[in-house]
Design a protein that fits this description.
The protein is mainly α. The protein is built from 13 helices and three strands, in the order H-H-H-E-E-E-H-H-H-H-H-H-H-H-H-H. Helix content is 63%, strand content 5%. A hairpin with a 3-residue loop joins strand 2 and strand 3. The structure holds zinc ion (ZN). The site of zinc ion has 6 residues, from helix 5 and helix 9.
Amino acid sequence: MKYFLLALLVVTLNVSAEKSREGVEVQKSRLLLLPASTVERSASQQYGQLMRAASDKGLLNRDPEQVNRLRRIARELVPHAARFNKDAEKWRWEVNLISSKSVNAFCMPGGKIAFFTGILDTLQLTDDEVATIMGHEIGHALLEHGRARMSEQVLKNVGISVAAAVFNLGQISAELLNQAANLAVSLPYARLHETDADLVGMELAARAGHDPRAAAEVWRKMSRLAQAVAKGGGQPPQFLSTHPSHESRIRDIEANLPRVLPLYTKAKP
Ligand SMILES: [Zn+2]
């Protein structure tokens, strides 16, 4: 009986250790002055404007094969998103492709995703690589990095004392919110946000049956491209200005592979 209980205990301990080892560990944002609903509404307006502008110029979703590919990969990743943010179940996800040489991609708060043809063509991305980039962008949205940055922008503009005293968000103008939403996709992310988005991206990709090792390869490709462009005296890829690369990025990605590779092994087709 004693041995049986001991064995049971060991088994139970193993199971819980196994559980806690599975998947990545990330931090949710703290400075969230603006309600999520306000942020998502504003992001959705900004996204709509951007897509209408692209459509007016004939630059929206011109390559059906690539659009279908992006939407298929999004459909594979999205069912796993609620693990990081329960609200994601209610998001109205959108995925669009803009014809532009710009090496860029983003996911605005509320699940509004855009890829530029430049990032697909220049980096010759495989499906696994698209999945880790899309997962990374979705990671920023799930961890509410955009909401945190919009809150910061609004605080900077209305003044901390006013915001703290009044805290009446109804007084924040639509214009100010739109400015903040714009800045939220054009400012560089903080280093910790980048690392956490990488980890979420790897886990979403792995759970969807995409090889999470592709995340490291994306950053290798990105840094080779940056070096090549710099040699020619050109501008660095836009993606790098909003997602600053740091030396330890690939190291962090590789250090976290053991947490997500088992998920990939289980999910892979
Ligand atoms: Zn990022």
